[in-house]
Write a sequence for this structure.
C-alpha cells in the first residue's frame, strides 16, 4: 500500500535537515531582535514538515492517515493558540 | 458453533473461558476478551484501593478537628485517592474492560486490529500501576492529583518522581488502546456494518480514542518536565530559573480536562445501549447522539482554561475559556434529551442495568449543570476550590461514570461470563448506591457554597452536620459497591446459565454465544439492519 520514496530522496531530505540545523546555529549568532524567534520557528516548522512528509511517509499515505496526522497538528495549534491567548494578554508589568 | 470436536465429558461448548487453562494461557493471551478480564481484575483492585482512601478522608471529616490524621497524612490521602481513581480506574475502566471485550464483538470481528499491542498495553498499565503503588507504599505523594508547580517540582518532599513516572508510563497504555480501537473500527467492521449502523457505544469509544491519542502525550510531557525540573533543575516551571508555573497548569489541563471526557464518553455510550434495550425502542436521533460524541471530543479540548480562572491567567483568556466551556454543554445536553425522548412512549422495564442508566441520566444532568455554574467567571470566584467543585466533579465521575460502568458490567455480565446474576440483588445494590451517592455528595454542594474549602482536614464546626451526612452516605455507598462484588462472584459458580441474548437486545455481540468462543463468530456476519431495531422484532438470534 505504501510507496516509500527512493533512497536518493531520503538522502536529500537528510542533507536538507542538516543544512537547516547549520542555518539555525549560524543565525543564533546574529542578533535579529524580535526576528530571532520568528526565524528559529520558521526553520523548525520547515524541518518538521520535511520529517512528516518524507520520513513519516505522510506524503505517500492514504487520505485517512493524512487526516489523523493533520488532526495532530490541529490539536497542537489548539494548545499553542489558547496558551498564547493567555500569555500574550496577561497584565504583567 | 463448530461441532467438529467431540466433547463426551462436558456439555459446555468451547468458549474463550474454557478454551485453554493455566496461568500462562491468561497472562500471555492475545484474546481481546481475556485481556478485558485481566483489566477487569486489576482495575477492580485499584477501585477498592482508591475507595479505601476515600473512606479514610470521610472518616477524618466526620469531626471538625483534625483528630484522626495529621495535615500531612491527610494531604497524601486525598492525593492518592485522586491519582488512583482517575489514572488507574476512571480513565481505563470502560475502554479497557468493556471496550476491549465489546469492540470486536460489536463489529463482527475476531479480535482487535493489533492483539499483541493490546496485551502490551495491559502490561504497560501494570508496570505504571506498580510504580504508583511503590510510591504509595514508600510514603505517598502530597501534591494533590493535579501536581501543581512549583510545589510539585520544587518543594514537595514526597515520592513525586516515582508517581509521575508511573502515570507517564500508564499514559502509553492509554495511547495504544486508543490507537487499537481507532484502527479496528475503521478497518475491521463486518460487511454491511456502515458507520451509521454502528452501535452508539462504538461512536463514543471512537471519540474517546481520539482524545486518548491526541491528549495523553501532552500530560505525559508535562509530568516528564516536572520530573526533569526536580531531578536536573531545568527551569521550565520555576520562576527563579526563568520558568512559568502557569505553563504547567496549561499543559496539565490541556489533557486533564479532555480526560474527564475520556471518562464520561464511554459511559454515555453504555447508556445509549441500555436505554433503547429496556425501552424496546429505537434510540431517538441516532446521528445527533453519534455526532455529539465527536463534538464533545473536539470542544473538550478548547475549555481547559476554566480550571485557571483565579490562577493568574489573563482576564481575556478567562472570557474565551468561559464561553467555550458553555459550548461543550450543548452536545452533552443533546444526549440527555435524546435518551429522555427514547424513553417517551417506550415499553420501559426496570432491570438492574436500566436502573443504573436512569441514575446516570439524572446525576449526570446535575453534575453537568453545576459545571455551568463553575464555568461562569464571576460565580467561579465564589466557589472555586470549595466542596462545590468536589460535589460537581463526583456527580459527573461517580454519579455519571461509575453508575454507567456498573450498568455496563451488569448489562454485559451474562455475555462476559455466561452466567446470570440475581436481578433482585442487582436492583437493591443499584438503589443503595443511588441513595448512598446522593447522601454523600449533595451536602457537599451546600457546604461548598457556604464556603468550606477543599483539601483541608479541619473545618469550622458549623459545617459538621453536612459533613456527617456526607460521611454516613459514603459508608452506605461503600456497602453498595461491595454488594455487586459479592453477588457477581457468586453468579460465576451458582448463577443460572445465560442464553446468547438474555435481554433480547439488538447488536452483533448478542448473536455470539454466551460466553463467546475465542474466535467470536465462526462465520463473519453480514449486517443488513440498522442499530436498535427494537420495534421490528425479527432481529436474528444465533
Amino acid at each position: 500500500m505504501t510507496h516509500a520514496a527512493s533512497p536518493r530522496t531520503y538522502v536529500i531530505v537528510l542533507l536538507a535537515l542538516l543544512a537547516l540545523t547549520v542555518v539555525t546555529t549560524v543565525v543564533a549568532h546574529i542578533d535579529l531582535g524580535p526576528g530571532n524567534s520568528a526565524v528559529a520557528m520558521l526553520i523548525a516548522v520547515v524541518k518538521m514538515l520535511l520529517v512528516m512528509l518524507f520520513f513519516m511517509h505522510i506524503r505517500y499515505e492514504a487520505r485517512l492517515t493524512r487526516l489523523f496526522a493533520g488532526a495532530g497538528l490541529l490539536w497542537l495549534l489548539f494548545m499553542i493558540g489558547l496558551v498564547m491567548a493567555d500569555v500574550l494578554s496577561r497584565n504583567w508589568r | 458453533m463448530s461441532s467438529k470436536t467431540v466433547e463426551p465429558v462436558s456439555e459446555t461448548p468451547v468458549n474463550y473461558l474454557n478454551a485453554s487453562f493455566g496461568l500462562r494461557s491468561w497472562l500471555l493471551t492475545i484474546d481481546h476478551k481475556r485481556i478485558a478480564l485481566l483489566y477487569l481484575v486489576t482495575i477492580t483492585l485499584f477501585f477498592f484501593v482508591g475507595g479505601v482512601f476515600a473512606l479514610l478522608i470521610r472518616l477524618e471529616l466526620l469531626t471538625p478537628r483534625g483528630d484522626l490524621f495529621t495535615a500531612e497524612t491527610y494531604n497524601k490521602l486525598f492525593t492518592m485517592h485522586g491519582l488512583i481513581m482517575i489514572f488507574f480506574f476512571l480513565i481505563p475502566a470502560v475502554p479497557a474492560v468493556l471496550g476491549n471485550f465489546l469492540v470486536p464483538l460489536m463489529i463482527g470481528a475476531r479480535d482487535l486490529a493489533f492483539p499483541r499491542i493490546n496485551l502490551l498495553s495491559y502490561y504497560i498499565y501494570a508496570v505504571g500501576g506498580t510504580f504508583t503503588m511503590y510510591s504509595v507504599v514508600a510514603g505517598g505523594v502530597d501534591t494533590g492529583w493535579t501536581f501543581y508547580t512549583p510545589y510539585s517540582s520544587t518543594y514537595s518532599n514526597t515520592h513525586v518522581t516515582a508517581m509521575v513516572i508511573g502515570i507517564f508510563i500508564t499514559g502509553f497504555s492509554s495511547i495504544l488502546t486508543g490507537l487499537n480501537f481507532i484502527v479496528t473500527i475503521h478497518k475491521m467492521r463486518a460487511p454491511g456494518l456502515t458507520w451509521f449502523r454502528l452501535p452508539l457505544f462504538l461512536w463514543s469509544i471512537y471519540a474517546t480514542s481520539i482524545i486518548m491519542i491526541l491528549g495523553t502525550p501532552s500530560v505525559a510531557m508535562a509530568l516528564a518536565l516536572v520530573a526533569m525540573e526536580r531531578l536536573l533543575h531545568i527551569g521550565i516551571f520555576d520562576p527563579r530559573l526563568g520558568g512559568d508555573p502557569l505553563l504547567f497548569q496549561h499543559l496539565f489541563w490541556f489533557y486533564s480536562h479532555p480526560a474527564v471526557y475520556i471518562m464520561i464518553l464511554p459511559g454515555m455510550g453504555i447508556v445509549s445501549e441500555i436505554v433503547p434495550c429496556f425501552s424496546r425502542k429505537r434510540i431517538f436521533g441516532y446521528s445527533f447522539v453519534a455526532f455529539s460524541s465527536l463534538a464533545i471530543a473536539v470542544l473538550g479540548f478548547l475549555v481547559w482554561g476554566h480550571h485557571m480562572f483565579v490562577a493568574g491567567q489573563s482576564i481575556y483568556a478567562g472570557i474565551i475559556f468561559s464561553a467555550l466551556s458553555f459550548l461543550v454543554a450543548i452536545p452533552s445536553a443533546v444526549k440527555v434529551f435524546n435518551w429522555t425522548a427514547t424513553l417517551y412512549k417506550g415499553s420501559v422495564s426496570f432491570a438492574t442495568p436500566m436502573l443504573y442508566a436512569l441514575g446516570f441520566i439524572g446525576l449526570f444532568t446535575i453534575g453537568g449543570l453545576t459545571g455551568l455554574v463553575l464555568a461562569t467567571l464571576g460565580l467561579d470566584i465564589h466557589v472555586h476550590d470549595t466542596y462545590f467543585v468536589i460535589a460537581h466533579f463526583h456527580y459527573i465521575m461517580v454519579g455519571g461514570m461509575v453508575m454507567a460502568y456498573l450498568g455496563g458490567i451488569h448489562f454485559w455480565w451474562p455475555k462476559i461470563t455466561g452466567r446470570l446474576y440475581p436481578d433482585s440483588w442487582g436492583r437493591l445494590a443499584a438503589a443503595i448506591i443511588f441513595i448512598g451517592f446522593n447522601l454523600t455528595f449533595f451536602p457537599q454542594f451546600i457546604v461548598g457554597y457556604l464556603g468550606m474549602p477543599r483539601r483541608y482536614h479541619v473545618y469550622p464546626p458549623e459545617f459538621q452536620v453536612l459533613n456527617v451526612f456526607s460521611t454516613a452516605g459514603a459508608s452506605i455507598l461503600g456497602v453498595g459497591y461491595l454488594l455487586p462484588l459479592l453477588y457477581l462472584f457468586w453468579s460465576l459458580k451458582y448463577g443460572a446459565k445465560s442464553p446468547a441474548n438474555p435481554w433480547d437486545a439488538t447488536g452483533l455481540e448478542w448473536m455470539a454465544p454466551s460466553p463467546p468462543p475465542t474466535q467470536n463468530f465462526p462465520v463473519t456476519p453480514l449486517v443488513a439492519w440498522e442499530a436498535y431495531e427494537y420495534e421490528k422484532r425479527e432481529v436474528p438470534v444465533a
Remarks:
- Chain B has a mean pLDDT of 93.
- Chain B touches chain A through 25 residues (CB under 8 Å).
- The two ends of chain B are 9 Å apart (CA to CA).
